[in-house]
Design goal:
The chain is mainly β. The protein is built from four helices and 18 strands. Helix 3 runs antiparallel to helix 4.
């Protein structure tokens, strides 16, 4: 087992629409499941915190039907260094008591607030840069910034366009499904493009399962890997050398628990793009 995967910790920060901030750190028990991918849909998380003090429980209460209220939530986790493993909008938060324990349940989405509350009303003349059209869509989505734009955003339009409607629908008109939101940033990329970032290395000492080939994907389970990001290059160093090589990270799920009472779960399920040709047995 890698020596750098010890001493995990976390920090959860919630900021309500009034700018009031609540921070949760150990020794409170914290469990979360986080899913992020390159699909054109909102990433999400679900979490439980045990025995928050009453002031914090009341302060972070969020009605799921208050969809026009933006509550930013940032979840950081790691070992020696904390990494942002989720950034988005708190969708719902409530608390209940069982026995002597108080449980606070939280859920949220990354980018959904901007998708639901944005409205595109723009006209562009022929010869407009496609990237400028996408930037205009990004600007229409509250709390979503422009990230990297790849090949689908290159070039200029051959004729004028007028757009009016939801950001999701307009993006699909411009670039199809070659977009995703991650960390409250809009990215545009085709299937083989990656974001500019260090290569994530998955060492055989940290793998919890043998890599599995499914259609055009390669997936496996690894010790909690908080520094991973969707859209980056990843290198697999498995004992089964047929799977070794570099691939694009297209999705992952973190299952993380911190508890002072017992050793909790901490793992990451990774999905890589192996390609249509992919691997040879």
């Amino acid at each position: 087992m890698s020596q750098r995967r010890f001493g995990r910790r976390y920090r959860v920060t919630v900021q309500n629409p009034r700018g009031e901030q609540y921070v949760v750190t150990p020794p409170l028990t914290f469990r979360c499941d986080i899913t992020r991918n390159v699909q054109s849909e909102a990433n999400e998380f679900n979490a439980t915190i045990v025995n928050l003090r009453p002031q914090t429980r009341n302060g972070i209460f969020k009605d799921r039907y208050a969809v026009t209220e933006y509550w930013q939530i940032r979840i950081e986790a790691g070992y020696r260094t904390l990494h942002t493993v989720f950034l988005g909008n708190l969708y719902e938060s409530y608390s209940y008591k069982e026995g002597s324990e108080w449980y606070t349940e939280l859920s949220g989405y990354d980018g959904l607030f901007g998708i639901q509350n944005g409205l595109v009303a723009e006209s562009f003349s022929a010869g407009t840069n496609i990237a400028d059209e996408i930037s205009a869509v990004s600007s229409s989505m509250p709390n979503v910034l422009a990230g990297d734009f790849g090949a689908p955003a290159q070039g200029q339009t051959e004729r004028g366009h007028s757009y009016f409607g939801r950001p999701r629908d307009v993006l699909e008109q411009i670039v199809g499904d070659n977009w995703y939101i991650d960390g409250e940033k809009l990215y545009v990329a085709d299937a083989l493009e990656v974001i500019r970032q260090e290569v994530a290395v998955f060492d055989s000492r940290e793998l919890l399962s043998t890599p599995r080939r499914r259609e055009t994907f390669l997936d496996f389970e690894i010790l909690f890997y908080p520094e991973i990001n969707v859209g980056q290059w990843a290198e697999v160093r498995s004992l089964n050398e047929v799977y070794n090589g570099q691939y694009k990270v297209i999705g992952f799920t973190h299952n993380f628990e911190w508890s002072g009472a017992e050793s909790g779960e901490a793992k990451t399920q990774v999905q890589l793009l192996a390609g249509a040709e992919g691997l040879s047995a």
